[in-house]
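User: CFA77 protein, Thinocorus orbignyianus:
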Amino acid sequence: QPELGRPQRNCYTLPGLNFAYGLYIPRTDGGVPEAIGHWNTVKPRTSVRKMPRDFITMNLGALKAGYTTAHEFNLYYKAKDIRQKDDEYSRFKRSPPNVPADFTYGIPTRSSTPIFDLLQHKYKELWMEQQRARTAAAKPDEKKKVIILQQVRETRTTFLRKNPPPAKEESFWHLPRLEKVEPHLSTFPDCDARKKAFSA
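Assistant: Predicted structure for CFA77 protein:
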């Protein structure tokens, strides 16, 4: 029930100081005295790893036996299952090669820039000389381009632009069966009535 004169609380009261949260796991190993008395060691398990097949040796043996088809090769693999040796997959063989003690991996460090060249703006002068040489070498190329453009041969397209072909005259010929024929139905009783109707 709520306390007298106070509203009802919407939370739970915490347990005392001696309360332990979580699960209580009793000790079954005997503690320190048992650890000092004797050691419970785990024996290492020896796992025999199955080595992959040595197809090079098996293929040589099958060829020497005179087999040529894939089916015969598969039967030979089942009959003589040769595995690769442990030496080929040992960690010593896969380790990096022996290198001298003073060997350094990577790119050697660049030599430091002399401060005297920086103070004299030597790098700027070298760059300016390179730019001048580049512009001097590019000027003859422009003259060559102009000469080449003047010597361009005239193609069919340029010739047709200058001298367009004459326009074809439209032919009004058509099949004789499609020609207009005189009307065979006469709407007017006589020729005078027809003239009178068209004149109106």
